[in-house]
Design brief:
- Helix content is about 0%, strand content about 45%.
- About 20% of the residues are buried.
- The chain is mostly beta strands and about 120 residues long.
């Protein structure tokens, strides 16, 4: 029986992002309980399509999916190759321990794409 080769995507894609750096709160940072922190990442549009007001950052895993309190829209146009900073204001829990989550970009068609942007802090 012959094997069927599955098509794999190669080359640039329309919607894609790459993590550049943690600007604030690198993994393992100790933070106070019941406080608001502003997590900021630097990311790059490595796709071939421009991000516009229909694109957003959405929670996908972890504790932070229950408590983030930002307006997540990327309001300006982000051209292919451009590097931007994205910031979330998050309320830390009242209990100690490791806390965080991950987010991904979402296109105006509802499709998630690109790198995961994660936060893992120690709440005391």
């Amino acid at each position: 029986t012959p094997l069927v080769a599955l098509a794999t995507q190669s080359g640039p894609v329309c919607m894609d992002s790459a993590f550049i750096a943690d600007i604030t709160y690198p993994d393992g940072t100790v933070v106070e309980d019941n406080s608001t922190i502003s997590k900021r990442w630097s990311i790059q549009n490595v796709g071939t399509c421009t991000w516009d007001d229909g694109f957003s950052l959405q929670p996908v895993t972890g504790d932070a999916t229950k408590s983030w309190v930002i307006d997540e829209k990327v309001y300006k146009k982000v051209e292919p190759g451009e590097i931007i900073e994205i910031e979330l204001d998050l309320d830390t829990p009242s209990t100690g321990g490791e806390w965080g989550g991950c987010w991904r970009m979402q296109g105006d068609n509802g499709q998630y794409f690109g790198t995961f942007l994660c936060l893992l802090v120690v709440v005391e």
